[in-house]
Write a structure and sequence with these properties.
Enzyme class: oxidoreductase
Shape: globular
Strand order of the largest sheet: 3-2-1-4-5-6
Distance between the termini: 32 Å
Oligomer: single chain
Strand content: 15-25%
Number of domains: 2
Structural class: alpha/beta
CATH topology of the largest domain: L-2-Hydroxyisocaproate Dehydrogenase, Chain A, domain 2
CATH superfamily of the largest domain: Lactate dehydrogenase/glycoside hydrolase, family 4, C-terminal
Radius of gyration: 18 Å
EC number: 1.1.1.37
Bound molecules: nicotinamide-adenine-dinucleotide, (2S)-2-hydroxybutanedioic acid
CATH architecture of the largest domain: Alpha-Beta Complex
Helix content: 40-55%
GO biological process, one term: tricarboxylic acid cycle
InterPro entries: L-lactate/malate_DH, Lactate/malate_DH_C, Lactate/malate_DH_N, Lactate_DH/Glyco_Ohase_4_C, Malate_DH_type3, NAD(P)-bd_dom_sf
Largest sheet: 6 strands, parallel
Protein name: Malate dehydrogenase
Number of strands: 14
Order of helices and strands: EHEHHEEHEHEHEEEEEHHHEEEH
């Protein structure tokens, strides 16, 4: 079984590394347009096989899509990342053309694949991929909410001074500095509401830090993050190839769910071998519903800039 990752940069190489380490496929194909870059990353990763004890083979290619043929899952990370001070939305001018071309090339060689879109602005790039691939809606999934939820859980664990794995918490809405919605009301510490332990002010602070999590890292790194994005991408690959039926937040094409139509935006979904299989209704309260509507409106405005 084959998994392809397009874009062998920071995020793509990280997805490939986690996929190999977890042996999620027999072969992981890395494709990039920069001459020799994917081949070099593949060689470096293959030389980890004996050190980390995995049997997945990594193949690198400069733009040869025939090597990606028959992939079960493809992960799209190609495109530019933001620099400090930029928003993700500012990347649309460059990344829309890249994501559209890449999607079309991938589908020619892997018509049965499930697409995971990571390139930013992710919700709009997922919508573009869904439209330009013509694939059934369940086979196009945007990765953002899993990363944002992981950051939310980590920030909560810092505030509670506890193990992050004891925290459950979900972020829905758009994957943008102002559009994501950390669902503080529903977050728990081993099944007990986090509001039992943290003040309103502290919870507000955690939510705000979560929302600008990507911008904070970009400020520190000079480019955007890759370890947690790579791990989140690989977790979605794993849910598909191992048919885990996991509840994950992902940007998917909505037809009435959460009151939205003709848009890809982050909602809780079950992910398994067929892609995203079902949207789960979290029964938002009025305040959360209003935030979700505002978030979807902002994503929709960005989608309007696309030439479909
Ligand atoms: N959705 C998320 O949660 C999330 C998280 C992190 C990064 N991102 C986004 O992922 C994208 C990649 O980030 P990065 O840090 O890996 O950037 P990067 O610059 O390290 O890597 C991007 C790679 O894409 C390649 N590329 C460009 N055009 C291509 C094409 N047409 N075909 C194949 N490859 C092509 C580049 O050569 C480069 O190697 C950015 O848009 C970034 O904003 C999203
Ligand atoms: O912040 C970014 O631009 C990259 C990514 O979307 C992230 O959240 O890390």
């Amino acid at each position: 079984m084959k998994v392809t990752v397009v874009g062998a940069g920071n995020v793509g190489a990280s997805v490939a590394e986690y996929c190999a380490m977890k042996e999620l496929a027999d072969e992981v194909v890395l494709l990039d347009i920069k001459e020799g870059f994917a081949e070099g990353k593949a060689m470096d990763l293959n030389q980890c096989a004996t050190l980390n004890g995995f049997n997945t083979k990594v193949t690198g290619t400069t733009g040869d899509y025939s090597k990606t043929a028959g992939s079960k899952v493809v992960v799209i990370t190609s495109g530019i990342p933001r620099k400090p001070g930029m928003t993700r939305e500012e990347l649309i001018g460059t990344n829309a053309g890249i994501v559209k071309t890449v999607t079309e090339n991938l589908i020619k060689h892997s018509p049965d694949a499930i697409l995971i879109v990571i390139s930013n602005p992710m919700d709009t790039m997922t919508y573009l991929s869904a439209k330009s691939s013509g694939l059934p809606k369940n086979r196009v999934i945007g990765m953002g909410g899993m990363l944002d939820s992981a950051r939310f859980r980590y920030r909560l664990s810092e505030a509670l001074e506890c193990n992050p794995n004891d925290i459950q918490g979900v972020v829905i809405g758009g994957h943008g500095d102002t559009t994501m919605i950390p669902l503080t009301r529903l977050a728990t510490y081993n099944s007990t509401p986090v509001s039992n332990y943290l003040s309103e002010e502290k919870l507000e602070e955690v939510a705000k830090a979560t929302m600008v999590g990507g911008a904070t890292l970009t400020g520190l790194l000079g480019t955007s993050a890759w370890y947690a994005p790579g791990a989140a991408g690989a977790a979605m690959v794993e849910a598909i190839v191992r048919d885990q039926k996991k509840l994950m937040t992902a940007s998917v094409y909505l037809e009435g769910e959460y009151g939205q139509n003709d848009i890809c935006v982050g909602v809780p979904v079950i992910v398994g071998k067929d892609g995203w299989e079902e949207v789960i209704d979290f029964k938002l309260n009025d305040d959360e519903k209003a935030k979700f509507e505002a978030s979807a409106a902002a994503v929709r405005k960005m989608n309007d800039a696309l030439e479909l």
